[in-house]
Design brief:
The protein is an alpha+beta fold. The chain has 21 helices and 11 strands. Pathway: Steroid biosynthesis; cholesterol biosynthesis.
Length: 616
């Protein structure tokens, strides 16, 4: 195996991915497995480069001195003294007029080349993807630095090309053999300039999250235990923390009919997903530059599901069957998610390297199994992660809430549901419908772009979301709460405020990511980054760094308030959600600092508060 060529801390010239430009970088580390150097640019951006994309600084200095020592005119004149390509075989001399015309043409060609070179360099430096171009749109001062390394390097690269082109055009090569050589030389030079974009090869995950191997191993057991504990507590007459519920018999937790109903639900949603309705959009570029296509028809699937539920209710199907077998449905969903996770990990072992998840490629079985080894597992055009993200769990959440509403009416002999139950169902229905209506926005989230599809997302989508997020409605069935209309109005106002912050912030972010040049977004200011993306510093994103998280937490509180203040159990959701979003915010901070470098530090100085203004 060949050893490494550049040492840690060495200052070299690294090629920017997708271009022919080299910049001064510093080597920070080397991956012996992938044979990639991690280099740091002057703006703080860190990238992984191949050894072939790195050059020593002495190579550029030597190239510069070599080109300056021999001017184009000297090289052409020495060649003319040895043998003129235009001279005939018999050695006849040119006439004086032909010589003068030849000199005039030669002088004109040199002048045109000398004029074209600065113009070309000026255009390349002007349109180079740097920070100054974006600052021009933000009204920020441009950089006054004149010594641009990329322009110097590009000049060194273009000068030999221009010289060869001038020499080939200056003389008329009559020999067919020489003509063929001319075409080959021009083709080689053209191929040299048209460099293909560098494909980013995924590296091993070095920084482990969620407590590493030990933490993820414990979470595999802790998450299902938490779900079952919460559901058992809601069945208690006194659901206080000190009143631990008795464990049910194992045979009572499983019923084949319930598992069959769950499978029927899952595959029904899969059929709705495959229907050729709704538009097809492209996701964000992957590490290899490819874009996957997604069919946006989640809202249509919701309408079809609502129609199917309406038909069942019309034929007097008792939907409160879900309430009576709620624990068994949770066990069935957990068993299915575990089987799905095993399948996902086994198939990921045969997946190409570029299709693995950035955060789930550690080489440790437990960690990769939990976080997800493959980024976008697909069966044909059926995207498993994208399907599970919104369909079975999220729509199932609404169906479970409706079942709890009907169960409350039956158990307590009510002609209409309680005001608390109506508020909980209405608030959460709005949240789900909004997510399905804005389904395309999920393509820019961390779950789709960064996290693999493993036990964490499979269990979260199929078990945690429908059975924990419906905890308030499940709690109200066994513990009815009466609230006043003024209190209900205050809760409704709080939910509307949270929803407005959540929706408007997400809309700003998604529209800006999709089309930063949209005239409707001309009033938004942003900080440019070396990746070509901008960091918004106006609107909601200039208020706190994660305003969508703030709106989410406000809505979560509004969902819990209709349950009263007798027990803390219905407030588990808002407590958990705060912990979840604070942890996710920390992951975002770490990821963005590595990705954007100094631009992210400038953004943090501009927007100091993370989620809660003036608090955190």
């Amino acid at each position: 195996m060949p050893g490494r060529k550049f040492a840690d801390g060495e200052v070299v010239m690294g090629r920017w991915p997708g271009s022919v430009l080299y910049y001064e970088v510093q080597v920070t580390s080397y991956d012996d497995v992938a044979h990639l150097y991690t280099v740091k640019y002057k703006d703080g951006t860190e990238l992984a480069l191949k050894e072939s994309d790195i050059r020593s600084q002495s190579a550029f200095k030597h190239r510069k001195s070599q080109s300056s020592s021999s001017s184009p005119s000297r090289r052409s004149s020495s060649r003319s003294r040895s043998r003129s390509p235009g001279r005939t075989g018999r050695g006849r001399r040119r006439s004086a007029s032909q010589s003068r015309e030849h000199k005039d043409d030669k002088k004109k060609t040199i002048q045109e080349t000398s004029l074209a070179l600065p113009v070309l360099l000026l255009l390349v430096c002007w349109f180079k993807p740097s920070e100054n171009n974006t600052k021009r749109y933000n009204g920020e001062p441009e950089s006054t630095e004149k010594n641009d390394t990329s322009c110097i390097i590009l000049e060194q690269k273009l000068k030999p090309d221009l010289e060869i082109k001038r020499v080939l055009e200056q003389y008329s090569l009559r020999s067919r053999k020489d003509d063929k050589k001319k075409e080959e030389i021009y083709s080689e030079k053209k191929t040299f300039v048209a460099v293909k974009p560098i494909e980013k090869v995924p590296t091993k995950t070095k920084e482990l999250e969620f407590g590493g191997r030990i933490g993820t191993f414990m979470l595999i057991f802790l998450l299902p235990a938490t779900v079952f504990y919460l559901l058992l507590m809601c069945k208690q007459d006194d659901p206080s923390l000190l009143n631990f519920p008795p464990l049910p018999a194992l045979e009572s937790l499983w019923e084949g009919r319930v598992f069959g109903v769950f499978l029927l639900w899952f595959f029904l949603q899969a059929v709705f997903y495959l229907l050729p309705i709704g538009k097809v959009v492209e996701g964000l570029p992957l590490s290899n530059g490819r874009k996957l296509q997604y069919r946006i028809n989640g809202f249509y699937a919701f309408l079809l599901t609502a129609a199917a539920i309406g038909v069942l209710l019309y034929f007097q199907f008792e939907l409160h069957y879900l309430y009576d077998h709620f624990m068994q449905f949770a066990v069935s969903a957990a068993a299915f998610s575990l089987a799905l996770s095993i399948y996902l990990y086994v198939r990921s072992l045969k997946a190409p390297e570029e299709e693995l998840a950035p955060g789930g490629n550690s080489g440790y079985f437990i960690y990769d199994f939990f976080t997800g080894h493959e980024l976008n597992p697909r069966i044909g055009s059926f995207d498993l992660k994208y399907f599970c993200e919104l369909r079975p769990g999220l729509i199932g959440w609404v169906v479970i809430n409706l079942a709890m509403l009907l169960a409350e009416m039956k158990i307590h002999n009510l002609s209409v549901p309680s005001l608390s139950m109506i508020l909980v169902n209405s608030f959460q229905l709005l949240y789900v419908v909004d997510a399905l209506w804005n389904e395309e926005a999920i393509l820019t989230t961390m779950d789709i772009t960064h996290d693999g599809f493993g036990f964490m997302l499979a269990f979260g989508d199929l078990v945690w979301v429908p059975f924990v997020y419906s905890l308030q409605a499940f709690y109200l069935v066994g513990h009815p709460i009466t609230i006043t209309w003024p209190f209900a109005a205050a809760i409704t106002a709080l939910n509307c405020i949270g929803y407005y912050i959540f929706r408007s912030a997400n809309s700003q972010k998604n529209n800006f990511r999709r089309n930063p040049a949209d005239p409707k977004l001309a009033n938004l200011k942003f900080i440019p980054t070396a990746t070509g993306k901008g960091l918004l510093v106006t609107g909601w994103w200039g208020f706190v760094r994660h305003p969508n998280y703030l709106g989410d937490i406000i809505m979560a509180l509004a969902w819990s308030l209709p349950c009263g203040f007798n027990h803390i159990l219905p407030y588990f959701y808002v407590i958990y959600f705060i912990c979840l979003l604070v942890h996710r915010e920390a992951r975002d901070e770490h990821h963005c600092k590595q990705k954007y470098g100094l631009a992210w530090e400038r953004y943090c100085q501009r927007v100091p508060y993370r989620i809660f203004p003036y608090i955190y």
